[in-house]
Design brief:
5 helices; 410 residues; 9-stranded antiparallel β-sheet; mainly beta; single chain
Length: 410
């Protein structure tokens, strides 16, 4: 079993560090401005989600993020960093959290069934659980923490992916001042997948401080920016801005989504626009009357009824599951980047794609039913790249969009 504490850190060159310093907005000015007030491009805050230029600074200058192999420029997203799989994967008997007194490696000694070299490719079977050490590691400083999430394409393939840390007591949460390795728990639910060292299934957001968000702040954000493009009363905005589902389309019989075919062929996670849609998905059309019945054995791709917008100085996250709205899970991959759906980044009219799976029993989901809530958090500064503008953005201006692995429907 490898000793993950002996990972080699390759220092960035002085030239790269200097470039990152020049790109960065430097450190945010001290003093928190009015929360969720109108931001200008030059406004900076002492707390919030770190934008792309600050993430570069953490890699090139402060080295709070480092890796076994050099971090690539295209890993930097407007408010997150893509994480890469390492060279081995462990098939485990069950999902786990290590607990505050235990490392992931120690837990693997008890739970690992099989160790697999995926340097040049390895198959992760549907229905199985794997732990994969990531190439990236963290050495966070005071007041700095992180949050993990699957990438959009990962969620749209029904790959359940969560971030784990040593001594961790929560999935997808990296405590303040954490120093150590990162691991991905990967469990393909619908399709078996082919991955290799360097494949990207998850991403991480870095947060400085703990800025407090309130329902009133969300109401102001909706009033000023119309972040969810429908008429929403103030009372409906609580613990985020509500998002509803479209199961009607523009007319009866219209395409409203897709349902995954059972027992489809393998998907290579690194092949883009390669697979034929009809071999993996069945079209779902609007019911002639009533709602759409979700079968608990199936996985669905649907879309929000409303257009969704993320202003350039905010990041958003979809709350995945709420037992108050029904026995189903919506949106495995919850990060929405700054600029998503925003006119300034060419995304006006973008809808949220919803990854939907019912639990235990068939469930009728009605048109316009609230299926999740978007929570918005301020960035410390506007990023030097927006989703859809100057960054590889596969889902800007999307309607009902499958993952980028599939050819565009004809």
């Amino acid at each position: 079993m490898p000793n993950t504490t002996n990972l080699i850190f390759e220092n960035a060159s002085d030239d790269l560090a200097e470039q990152a310093t020049q790109k960065s907005n430097a450190l945010p000015r001290q003093g928190v401005l009015d929360e969720f007030g109108e931001d200008s491009e030059g406004t900076a805050y002492s707390t919030g989600i770190l934008p792309s230029q600050e993430l570069e600074r953490l890699v090139r200058v402060t080295r709070e993020i480092y890796a076994v192999e050099p971090i690539q420029d295209d890993q930097f997203q407007p408010a997150s960093l893509d994480l890469r799989l390492g060279s081995v994967a462990y098939r485990v008997r069950a999902s786990f959290l290590p607990g505050k007194d235990t490392t992931v490696e120690q837990r693997l000694e008890d739970l690992a069934m099989h160790k697999m070299d995926i340097s040049n490719g390895g198959v992760l079977e549907r229905g199985c659980v794997y732990i994969v050490p990531l190439l990236e590691r963290l050495s966070l400083r005071h007041r700095t923490s992180a949050t993990g999430n699957p990438k959009s394409s990962t969620g749209r393939l029904d790959i359940f992916t969560r971030l784990i840390t040593d001594n961790g007591t929560e999935f997808d949460r990296v405590r303040e001042q954490y120093k150590g390795p990162l691991y991905a728990e990967v469990s393909p639910r619908t399709f078996s997948i082919l991955v290799r060292k360097g494949s990207r299934l998850s991403q991480i957001r870095i947060r400085r401080g703990n800025p407090h968000s309130t329902d009133e702040a969300m109401r102001r954000l909706q009033e000023e920016h119309k972040v969810v493009g429908s008429t929403i009363s103030e009372d409906e905005i609580r613990n985020g801005v509500p998002v509803s589902v479209d199961v009607q389309g523009n007319e009866s019989g219209r395409l409203i989504g897709y349902k995954a075919r059972s027992y489809s062929a393998l998907i290579d996670i690194d092949k883009i626009r390669h697979y034929d849609v009809e071999e993996y998905w069945e079209p779902v059309h609007a019911p002639r009357r009533g709602g759409l019945i979700l079968d608990p054995a199936d996985f669905y791709i649907l879309a929000s009824r409303e257009a969704v917008k993320v202003p350039p100085t905010y990041a958003a996250e979809m709350i995945a599951y709420d037992t108050l709205v029904g026995e189903f899970r919506v949106h495995y991959a919850g990060f929405f980047d700054p600029g998503f759906g925003h006119p300034d980044a060419g995304g006006e009219g973008s809808r949220a794609v919803l990854e939907v799976r019912s639990y235990e029993v068939p469930f009728v989901i009605e048109h316009g039913q609230v299926v999740g809530r978007l929570t918005y958090e301020r960035l410390t500064a506007q990023p030097n790249r927006l989703y859809g503008s100057g960054v590889n953005s596969s889902y800007q201006r999307q309607g009902i969009a499958l993952s980028k692995h599939f050819k565009p429907p004809t």
